[in-house]
C-alpha cells in the first residue's frame, strides 16, 4: 500500500492520497467507466449513498446543504483523482449534497461496501480517512463563516462564476448558462425573489441577458474574479 505524504495539509490532497492508497488494495479499474453529460444530476441531497463517484477526469460540482433546515448551501467541487462524498462512509444517514457532472467528466461508481471493507482491513487507509474528515470539517466551517459574511450580490456572482466554469465559452468568449432561477437561487443560498432582483440589476448594468431557462453572460470578466 502506498504510504501517505507527511506534508499533506488540505483535504483535496488527503482525498487523492486516500484514493492512491485504496488503489493499492482494490482494483478500481475493474469498475465501469461512465461519462455523464455536463450538468447531469448524479445524486441529490437526501439520498442514501450506496456507491461513491471516483473522478477520473474533469470535475464534479457539489452543493452542500447544511443548517437545521438545510437552507444554507456551500459550493464545493471534486476534481480528477478524488473520491466524492467520502463523509457519507460508515453512515446510514442520507447525504447532504447535490452532485452535478462538470464538462468532460469521467467517473467510476465504487460501491460503498467495497470501500468500507478495505478501510476496515487496512489501518493506514482508515487513518487517512480520519485525517481527511477532520481537515474537510475545518475547511467547511471556514467556508461557511466566509459565505455567511457575503451579501446577496456577491453570492449570486459566485454562483454564476461556478456555473460558467462548467460550461465552455462560445467563440466570442460569452457563456450561455441553461439554468432556472430556482436552481441558481439554491446554489446562491438566497431566496428566489432576491435572486431575481439581483439578476435584473446585473442585466440592467449590461453584465448578462436573461432568457427563458437560460442566462447569457455578456461580460464574463465581471464574474471571473469571483470565487
The unreliable regions are 1-7
Q: Beta-strand level of the residues, as a percent range? A: 15-25%
Shape descriptor reads elongated
Distance between the termini: 36 Å
- Proportion in helices: 25-40%
Strand count: 10
Write down the secondary-structure element order: HEEEEEEEHHHEHHEEH
Total DSSP helices: 7
Strand order across the largest sheet: 2-6-4-5
Mean pLDDT: 83
Category from helices, strands and their pairing: alpha+beta
**What integer value in Å does the Rg equal?**
19 Å
Q: How would you characterize the largest beta sheet? A: 4 strands, antiparallel
Describe this structure in words.
- With 227 residues, this protein is α+β, with helices and mostly antiparallel strands.
- It contains seven helices and ten strands.
- The strands form three sheets. A four-stranded antiparallel β-sheet has the order 2-6-4-5. Strands 1-7-3 form a three-stranded antiparallel β-sheet.
- Helix 1 packs antiparallel against helix 3 and helix 5 packs across helix 6.
- The N terminus is likely disordered.
Brief synopsis:
With 227 residues, the protein is an alpha+beta fold. It has helices at residues 11-23, 112-121, 123-148, 152-165, 181-188, 192-204, 221-224; strands at residues 33-34, 41-43, 51-57, 59-66, 72-79, 97-101, 106-111, 175-177, 208-211, 214-217.
Amino acid at each position: 500500500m502506498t504510504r501517505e505524504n507527511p506534508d499533506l495539509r488540505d483535504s483535496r490532497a488527503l482525498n487523492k492520497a486516500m484514493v492512491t492508497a485504496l488503489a493499492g488494495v482494490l482494483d478500481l479499474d475493474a469498475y465501469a467507466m461512465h461519462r455523464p453529460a455536463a450538468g447531469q444530476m448524479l445524486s441529490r441531497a437526501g439520498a442514501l449513498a450506496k456507491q461513491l463517484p471516483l473522478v477520473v477526469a474533469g470535475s464534479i460540482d457539489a452543493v452542500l446543504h447544511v443548517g437545521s433546515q438545510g437552507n444554507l448551501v456551500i459550493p464545493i467541487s471534486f476534481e480528477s483523482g478524488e473520491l466524492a462524498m467520502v463523509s457519507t462512509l460508515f453512515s446510514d444517514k442520507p447525504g447532504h449534497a447535490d452532485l452535478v457532472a462538470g464538462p468532460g467528466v469521467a467517473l467510476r461508481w465504487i460501491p460503498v461496501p467495497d470501500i468500507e471493507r478495505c478501510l476496515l482491513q487496512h489501518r493506514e487507509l482508515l487513518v487517512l480517512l480520519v485525517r481527511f474528515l477532520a481537515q474537510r470539517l475545518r475547511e467547511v466551517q471556514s467556508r461557511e463563516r466566509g459565505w455567511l459574511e457575503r451579501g446577496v450580490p456577491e453570492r449570486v456572482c459566485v454562483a454564476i462564476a461556478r456555473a460558467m466554469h462548467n460550461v465552455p465559452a462560445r467563440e466570442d468568449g460569452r457563456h450561455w448558462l441553461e439554468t432556472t432561477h430556482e436552481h441558481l437561487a439554491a446554489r446562491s443560498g438566497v431566496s428566489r425573489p432576491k435572486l431575481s432582483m439581483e439578476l435584473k440589476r446585473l442585466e440592467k448594468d449590461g453584465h448578462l441577458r436573461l432568457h427563458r431557462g437560460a442566462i447569457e453572460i455578456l461580460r464574463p470578466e465581471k464574474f471571473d474574479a469571483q470565487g
